[in-house]
Each structure stands twice: as C-alpha cells, then as structure tokens.
Records
---
Amino acid sequence: MCGIVGYTGDELAKDILINGLKRLEYRGYDSAGVALEDATGGVTHIDVIRRVGKVAGLESELAGVDATATCGIGHTRWATHGRPSMANAHPHTSCDGRIAIVHNGIIENFAELREELAQRGHTFTSDTDTEVFAHLIEEAYYGRPAGVAAGTTAGAPAALGCHDLMAAVREACTHVVGAYGLAAVCADEPGVIAVARKDSPIVIGRGARGSYVASDVIALIDATRDVVVLEDGQFARLAPEGITYTDAEGTPIEPAVTHIDWDIDMAEKGGYPDFMLKEICEQPRVVRDTLVGRMTGGELTIDELGLSLEELNLIDRVYVIACGTSYHAGLIAKNLIEMWARIPCEVEAASEFRYRNPIITPSTLVVAVSQSGETADTLAAIRDARIKGAKVFGITNVVGSPVARESDGVIYTKANKEIAVASTKSFIGQVVSLTLLALLLAQVKYRLTVGQVRMLFRELGDTAEQIQWILDTQKDAIHEAALACKDAHSALFVGRGMGAAIANEGALKLKEISYLHAEAYAAGEMKHGPIALIDPGFPVIAIATKSPVYDKTVSNLKECEARGAKIVVVATEGDEDIAQIADHVIYIPPVRDAFSAITATVPLQLLAREVALMRGCDVDQPRNLAKSVTVE
Ligand code: F6R
C-alpha cells in the first residue's frame, strides 16, 4: 500500500509533505516524491521531485530546493506495477506537466486505457498503472484531441475540456476500473487539490493553517484530530480557504467528521494494538487484491508466468521450495496441484533442496515462495534449480526483490508491507496465488474445464467474506480457547488432508510468538507415537472442518479425549456434534475443502496471538527472529 499526503494553505508545503511521508514510512516504501506548485514571473508551474529509496533521500534533495510552494502532494511507493525506479515513482504528470497526481491502489484496466490514450497521442514515461490517471484527467481538463478512439474504426471527435480540476477528476474516474485513493493538482488552478476514493483509504482534515489529505490518519494527526474518512464514490476539493465534498455526480454532500483520539503509536497501527492484529484483519483485502485482474474475459490469466501455455502443458513435475510459513503455503499447494492438475508435486525446505540432488529436467517447474523475496536459502535454491535446467517461478510480496529478479516469472502477492515478524497476511496471499497457479496448471492440462475454473475462482473470492465473518464473530471463542492453552508447556496441532497442512502453520505461529512448544501431526499419526505425550489437560488443537476426512479426524480426536486432552477444534459453522468431544469450538463458515486453508488458518493466527499476549510476549517482535533472513 502506498502512502499519500497533500497540503494547501499558508505554510511551506514541502516541510508538511516530508513530515507526512516520514510518518508513513514505517511501512518501508521503495521510492518517494512530491509535486509542488511554484510560480515564476506570476505563472504557476509544477515541480516534481522524486527519489528512489527512503524519504530521507527525498528530504535531503528538497533541503537544497528553494521551494516557496504552499500547495503540493506527496507519495511514498510500495511497488505493484513496475519496479522501484525514478520513472515509476510518483507523482506522475500529464504530457505537458501541468497536472500531477499521486495514487494508491490498482487500476485493473490500465493496459486498455494506456493503449487508447497512446493512440490519441499521449506519451507515457513509466511502467505504472497510475500514469493513465494523469492523462485521463488531462483530457477531461484540457479537452481530447480528435483521433482514433479504441473500439472505433473511425476518428473520434475532439472533446472540449471542462477546465475544472474537480470535475476532470470525477470524469477520469468514470473510465477507471479498480481501486484508487487519488490526489491531483493542476498548475492552472493554483492552490486546489482534487481528491477521489474507491476501495483505497483517504482521510481529509482542516487545520488552523490549511487543508490536508492523506491515505492514513497518521500523516495529518499533528494538524487536526477531526477528520473526514472519505467513502467510496466521494470526492473532495481542497483549497486554502476550505474543503468541499461532492458525490460522483458533483452534488454537494456533507460527510461525517470523525474525532481521532489515538496516540501516534496507535495511529501507525491503524488503531489496532499491534501490527500482527492489523495484518490479520487485512486478510480479506489481501484475498481480493490478489485476485484482481486474474479473470479477464472469463479466462484465468497469469501473464507474469514467463512460460507459454505450451511450455506449461509440458510440465510433469513441480517442486515448491520455501522456508517457514512460506513452506507451509507450499504444503497447501501440493494438495491442490496434485488434486486438480494431477502433476506430482513435492514441497521442500529450501535449505535442504540445494544440498540434495533432486530430479530436475527441463519439464520441471520450481516454484519459489518467499514473502520478503530475499531469503538466502530460497535464493540459493533458485540458483541451483536454474543451473540444473528447471524453470523457476517466484511468488513473493516484494516487487523487484531478488526472488522476483532471479526467477523466470513471478506472481506478486498483494499483501503489501508486512511489519509483524510473524507472517500472517503474506501467507494468505501466498496460498491464494498458489491456488491460482494450481487452477491454471489444471486448465492447461485439460484436467479442469474453463467452466469449472471459473466456478472455483468465484468460490476462492468468497473466502474474503468468510475470513471477515471469522474476524467479526469468533473473538470470544478464540479468547476462551487461548485461556485453555496459555499455561501449557506444549501443544499438538492435528488434522488430516488439508487440515494436516494447516496444522503446521498453526503450530509455527504459536511457538514463534508465544514461545510455547507446539508440534503439528497428521491426526492419523498420533497413535504411532505422539499420543504418548497426552496427559490430562494437554492441549490438542484440531482442524476438523467438514471434509472427506472429517469422520476419521473425529475418531482420532476421540482417542485424545479418552486420555484427558483439552481439545480445541476449528470446525464448520453448524457442526453441533463436535461440541461433544471438544472443550472449545471455533467456527469457520462452510467452505470447499480446497480453500479451507485460507479460512481455517485465520483462527489459528488469532489463537497464537491471544496466547502470546496472555503470556506477556511481544507479538510483533518475537525474540531471536528477523523479518527477512538473509543468512544461510
Ligand atoms: C514465520 C515466518 C518465517 C518466514 C520464513 C521465510 O511467521 O515469517 O517462517 O516465513 O523466514 O521467509 P520468506 O517468506 O520471506 O522467505
């Protein structure tokens, strides 16, 4: 998620923008920039200053600039379309540089828009989706030249411009499909910032010295604590003397004002007590964003694969290589790839893979999964696999990261920057991305029909709402279950099928943030050894959702119950029978077994967090761990 700030008033804009960007930088952005309105000889122009890297670089650049501007916009970027670079850094401008914009979100139809705009003579200078917005606003403001419009064979008539920045932004938004938080300035309307929002946060405030906009309340909390949280389809026009709000038709509206009483620390966490909870609660958005643009014209598309459909069709073996939580995402993928595509799939810890002599041929696909994209073991395994002739496909959260650069193709999970050391939302993004890959493989191998893929894609999308249901309704049940686990010395996570894969992630989350020893076992394996651990009160946390192996799992749980285990079950909503053997039940909505990892993992993340908090642990920065592991 990128960060946006904007200011218009009677103070120096550059200082306000830099302070706002610094407040947003805790998310670790990759480039930053500002657009400042300045005047020479009474004529206003826009200066755009951008830097790759941290806001500090931009700050020192601006220190040497004699900018007297009192209106400007700024941006910190978390790359989605296009590598981190000067050209891709925001703000982006119209062809003549008289309009500048900053944008947060994803424009799904940017490729079509870009082509249409280019046909009409617009020049693009970046790889971003955002830049189309600058050119759309330019056309709406100054008028569209006569020329060829996409979808027509004849020349399109010229269109007159509205010469009203707010109206031009509203018009531009009618062409855009996707998510946006947008702020625009125009040299021909000095002092005005036009703002739009759809599915991407925007807050607006009025302070003693001017008007402010930001993507996060943290950036304007020093100026005012009374803010308007813009809603989808609402627009705002900021000027030094005040702010006006309109709907999509331009009709004035009066949005509600929210008073913020968070301190700075809470504001950085979006009002959540810790980053881990904030990131867990972002997971419905991660599912939606990861699916954006993947089903076009009824066809599942992953253009970034770097492999043609013919090459994909030849794949006869898949290795998923990864570490830690990412490895667990691989365990889920194995089930899906083998079930749907019928291709043998092995999941290997990257640290082991490179020291073995795995069977690799030109028809082997190696899928490297890494949140940070810089895990040393995973990178070394990628290099090794490529030397041995495999095609390597990366799944990572970080655009331009080494995993992305060194793979033949890459899918970016849309988790955005993850701050808590324990991976939560990244895991969900990885599982969703791997699910898409499994569906694509099944489709090219003709194991699933296009219709089946579409249906499964729709159900995959439904998991966003299912996660939200868990977040909204299961808090108390999870709290009670955590109380039952917090004083234990050890815990077992069990399940069968998908449940066994999910159990691994549940156990890792618990041990890494609560320091409570936990292991995962396939429930059917309990009787071959681990059941010896069970004595009265020993916590057994089971994933027993409705699936083909539900009855078998319940039988295994009965064996634990008979030995006095304290049983916590993640079960399917409506399953009342499970309460007969479970001490605590946490429900998830009914879901196809193939997608159960996406929902059933969420209560386990929350359970681990609750237990950790009860044990007095720092859930965001557990001891001995680092967010990215760049040593072998
Ligand atoms: C656990 C966790 C780690 C990482 C592992 C791999 O919550 O975050 O186990 O999953 O260090 O990191 P990436 O995915 O960055 O390669």
---
Amino acid sequence: MKVRVLGSCAGGGLPQWNCGGDNSVRARRNDPDVPARTQPGLAVSTDGVRWSIVNASPDLRTQLASFPPLHPKPGTRDVPLDTIALTSAELDHVLGLLVLREALSFRIVSTRWVRDAILEHNAAWRLVEPIWGAASLDAPIALDRAGALELRFFPVPAKVPSYLRELAKPHAETTTGVRITERATGARLAFVPGLAALDSATMAELAAADVRLVDGTFFTAGELRAMKPGAPDAAAMGHVPIAGADGSLAALADLPGRTWYVHMNCTNPVLDATSPERARVRRAGVEIADDGLEIEL
Ligand code: MLT
Ligand code: MN
C-alpha cells in the first residue's frame, strides 16, 4: 500500500490567515524549519495508478495539482480517483468536495450520520449527493474499484462539529477513524485525524496497525488560549493533547510499527523542526507528518 499525505496541518493550515503566532510568522517568511502546510488529507493506492482519498480539505485543488499521479489522462477527463472517504463532517475534512464539483466520476463514502448531517443542513452539498454512499461502523467495504483495499470506519471519542452543534445530536457515527487494509498483503493503516480521548477501543485499533497517523492538533491542552484569550481547551475542542499524563504521546510511544502525527494546529510547537517539543516527540519514536510524505507499507 502506498500512502501520500496530501495535507498535514489542521483546519486553517500554516500559516493560518489570521494568526500572527511564531509558527505562522516564520512560515510566511519561508523559514525552512517551519514549512507552510496545507489542510488535512491522505491519498492511498496499491499500484500507484488508481487512488482513493481520505478527507477532502479546502486545499484539495492545490494538493491534486502538486501530485501528478492524480492528474487526468492527457486529452481526456479521466482522473484515476476511485473514492473519497470522510472521517467526520468537520469543515476541514469536507469542504474539498465542493472544490471537485465539476465532475462526479468518483464516489464518496462516510457514515450515515456524517452524510445526513451535511446534506440536511447545507444545500450546496446536494450537488454531490448522487455519488455519496453510507457505510456502517466496523463493516468492511471496498475502498477502490478493484477491491484491493478494504476500509472500515471505527468510532472514536470526539465532538459534533461546531457548525452543527444545535442542529445534530452526537452519535457513535459522528467522528470515526479509518482502518485501511491491503487485501493481498494484510498491511494495515489507521488514520485518526480527530480524537478527543484515547479510549481502549481506539488504542486497540492503533496498536493493531502497521502504520498509524494520529491527531496531533495540540501539544498542550491550553495552547490555543495562549494565542487567543478565552479560547476553549483541547478537550473542549475534541482533541487529546500530545503532552501530559493523559496525552497521546505516552500511549503511542510503546506501540510497534510506525507512527506519525497529523492535523497539527498552527499553534503547535512541534511544527518548528528545531523545537524541544519536536525533539521530545521524536525521542518517543513518533514523527511529524509533512505535506507530501509518502509511506509504503
Ligand atoms: C477540529 O478539528 O476541531 C475542527 O476542524 C475545528 C474547526 O471547526 O475548524
Ligand atoms: Mn480539524
């Protein structure tokens, strides 16, 4: 299985347009230690020819432009894209569907809750309704047309997206991780870009994967408040912090296989390659995913 990180940052990207924090300032100055990053998503393939995507960020247009394997065949409108799978209804995971609205030559899959919550409350998404299927939690489905990759959505602790808060009730299907397995080899990827707490079921999913890409939004619980007085903490925003006794790093450090953080917020000190926080993550055997990272498993 081949995995390409299309975008490694959380919603807002780096630099985030309204942020004058250290990371955003340095990214604007093209500091090589704090490279600019796009909003979150992955592409996966078995043969490097046909691809599927997990999560459609608002940056999908530029992410596709900078990835030739997903360009249309010259002289045609044939794009080698099979499926876009969505782990939640968060805007940084779904706005890209509207960016691709010129053609509906692929299919979309999410849980029923995610599909219905978006379609019921956002008229523009009705454009993509005809290609949008729902999958049950923990049920294996074919991700690609050839059936070489199997995808399962598994439930993770999280939150209802803020724009849906008064409109939709929380449900086990609100936020998921994905397990993607290559049928021929058994190689297994877990991708969990939003995670409020590391419960035992999520830990078991992460532990059983050969490669895992995990929510690294915040390094510490109060990080956003330091930039934005009155901001909620990480738990209220649905993200387990990296550091601390209940943080994700302590739990991920001992796992076999390979682990990357993804979906880092622009405030996260790990985005500075020279920071002590980055060094601490690496000492625990965990890496920070960059835009364009390619992983083979
Ligand atoms: C999140 O990851 O918590 C959301 O993407 C935040 C948002 O609403 O932009
Ligand atoms: Mn997000």
---
Amino acid sequence: MTTAIHDTQTRIREERSGESRNNGSQRRAAAAVPPSESPVVEGKSLYQNVTTQFNRAADLMRLDPDVRKILAQTKNELVVNFPVKMNNGHVEMFTGYRVQHNDALGPFKGGLRFHPDVRLDEVRALAAWMTWKCAVAGIPFGGAKGGIQMDPSRYSAPELERITRRFAYALGDNIGPEYDIPAPDVNTNAQIMAWILDTYASTVPPHERQRNIHVVTGKPIEAGGSVGRDKATGQGVVYTIQEWATDKGLSLEGMTFIVQGYGNVGSWAARLLTRLGARLIAVEDVTGGVRHPEGIDPEDLLRYARVHGGVFRYPRGEFVDHIMFMQTPADIFIPAAMENQITGQTAPWLNVRLVAEGANGPTDPDADEVLRNRGIDLIPDILCNSGGVIVSYFEWLQNKRSEFWDIEEVDAKLHKRITTAYRKVRDKAVELDTDWRTAAYVIALTRLETVYKERGIFP
Ligand code: NAD
C-alpha cells in the first residue's frame, strides 16, 4: 500500500479517458512529474498568505531550520483529469486535486471542495491550514485538502454522483482510512461523502470492504456518520465566541452579529449563537446580502435560502450590497464563506469588536495588521473552525471502535477540546506578546517540531 507517492515531494497523476482500472499498489499515484520548484506561486497567492503567517511564527519561536524547510513545502500533490458522461450522452473532462501537506502527526485529513475557483495554489494553502489546525486541536491527524474545479449547480444529481464517483476512483489508494481521510467542505456534503465511501469500498478487494467505513468523515448518520458532525464547525465557532465573551466579561445576550456565507458553517453558527441570545442583523452569501437591525430569524432565513438558492431578496430585511454588508456595525463578524474576504482594502470597513473566522483563510496578512492596529479581536481559523475536524476525528474513532456516541457526549468532548485549545492560544499570545494567529501557529509548530526531533528524518 505504501508506495512511491509517500517518498516524493510532488507527483501529478493524469487519468486519461479509456484508461483501465488501477489495482493493488498501482492504485496510488501513477505517472510522476518533476516536483514544483516551490509551492509559492507568483503574484498574491493564497499559499503566500500561509507562508507569511508561517514565517512570522517560525521567526518568533526560532523554529528549527530543518523542520522549517520540511513544513514550508507540501508533501504530495495529485492532479487528476478525468472524463464523465453527461446526461446528454457527451463526455466532459474535469480536473480534481488532492494535496497532502504533512502527516507527521497522523493520517492526512481535510475536506473536498467543488468550486470553479479550485486550483492548486488554493488547495496547497488549505492543506497547510489543516496541518496547523489539527496540531492546535491536539488531534492525531496531518493536513490535506482537495476538490474539483467546477460549478456543481450546473449539474443534475445523477451527473454530480457520477462526477464524485469518478473522482474518488481517480484518487484510488491516494486516500484511505488510515492514510488520507476526506470530509465535506464548500459545496460538498454528507451525500457526496456517502458516494465516495461506496466507490472506495466497491473498488478494494472484497475482504477489505467492511473495514473502510472511516475512509471519509462527515457521512450521513445511517452510513456511519457521527451525530453532531453536521453542526460541528458552527458549534465550535460558537464555543470559541462564548469563551471570548467570558474572557471579556461580556454577555452574548443582546449582542449583534453578522455572517458572511450561509451554508453549513454560517447557518449553524447563526442558529446556535441566536439560541444564546445574540441577534443576527446581516447576512451575505454568493447571491447577495440582507440586513435587519431588529434581527433576522436564522431558521426562517435558512428555509428561504434552501428554496431560493440563497439569501437574495429575503423579504424580511432590506437588500445590502457587499460594502454595506461589510460596514454594518455589530459586535461580531463571522466570515463563513471563502478566503481573502478581509483584505487591506476591506478591513477598514469593518465596524465590529471581534472577527471569528468560520471560513479558512478569510483574512489576508495585510488585513491582519489593520485589525491589530484597530484593536479588533480575532479568533483565527485554525482555532475557530476546528470543531469540524475535531468531530470528524470523533467520527473516525467511533467507526474504528464500532461505537455510536450520543449528541451529549459529542458536544461535551468537542467543548472540552476546543476550549482547551482556545485557552492555550490565548495564554500563548500573552506569553509571547503577539497576536492570536501567530500564537496558534507557534503552538502548532512547536508540536510538529517536537515530533520531528523525536522521530528524526528517515533514513
Ligand atoms: P457551504 O458550501 O456549505 O457554504 C458556503 C457559503 O458561502 C454559501 O452560502 C455561499 O453562497 C457562500 N459564498 C460563496 N462565495 C461567496 C462570496 N464570494 N461572497 C459571499 N458568500 C459566498 O460551505 P461551508 O462548508 O459552510 O464552508 C464555508 C467555509 O468554512 C469555507 O472556507 C470552508 O473551508 C470552511 N470550513 C468548513 C468546514 C465544514 O465542516 N464544512 C470546516 C472548517 C472550515
């Protein structure tokens, strides 16, 4: 099972139309191409944001130079081009990615995203953030990410199923329950995970089929998913906000908040925070923005968004454009959509006390500086949205042990883990007199540095 890809920094595999099924050890990574010179691409790339954040922390803590070299690069990169037959009988080609950043702490772990903007640079950055996130949360996983470059809204359900299955087949043994475990991300969900599980299980030898249920997390409950996984990321965001409010001596009762992105993370965070007495006053998604100073009912908005494909033209609120949304005065802003939303240009628009990063990479390094100078608190993504991967870890454990935990147990364990991580980051920021993102990185990098020193470098 452990074949060439593990020993190589970068491999790109192209699956050609008509290619026969891979099997056995050949299923993992076929044709190799030379490694990229550096994972950082020209221009202002997302991976450069990660690198800037990483360098800031590595300098501050004087990270071992050898460990620094290793962590500055992704470990494996896979690109697959694959054909799928559409409903009209014609074939369409798709490009899918899986980047495995680091597995020093355990199997690679990270979501799959279906979006037109999915590209190698983005997936590299998201994979690295997963490494730091798992290390901050103290769970035994490394970091990976993947996806398909496409707009899923253009395809019917049967087409989406065939695209997903063919992608899972193309990934082959480059994913696996003890090797690399995907989960839902933007525009993917429990159904997509069930198709991946079924495809994976159907293409391994018969005696292995029942042992592979933990090849993905975020599955439907009946297919081996965990209760509480669907809301886990939003729940984790809310637990960290509660800790922040307690630290500040503030009550969430009557506080106002705004949310960007009303999918899994945004809508769960909004519903759970509202149940604690906070008031949702503005929401923006890809279709547009809505605002109501008296408060928006998050359940009602979700029902509307499900029927209409988004929050645009929600009747119980006024329409707002992007700038008006970002300028809305509120106590808390939860970005829960895409990366690079808070930039040097947009950060001055914000009129909030706290940014709680539900999304991955919503704030770029220029914006970090603006927020710091303006005294706006920030709970960084690698801490704030770690509830998803923490409960994915719980799902993986339950599958391995053939156990089913109830929601009380899942929530209590999530609460303990994420608040412990929160307090460590808070205390590290004070100890080093630095910002919370850098403090979280220092915690992650210290853990990774220790493991590399203990294990050494093969051979
Ligand atoms: P989702 O597909 O369920 O929802 C995404 C939302 O973002 C949608 O409402 C969409 O309309 C909105 N959106 C997309 N582009 C936008 C734009 N340009 N402006 C405003 N809104 C836009 O995705 P999700 O799973 O909720 O993920 C959201 C973010 O949270 C991503 O950054 C993801 O990586 C991160 N995240 C997700 C999880 C998880 O468990 N799903 C875990 C950790 C982090």
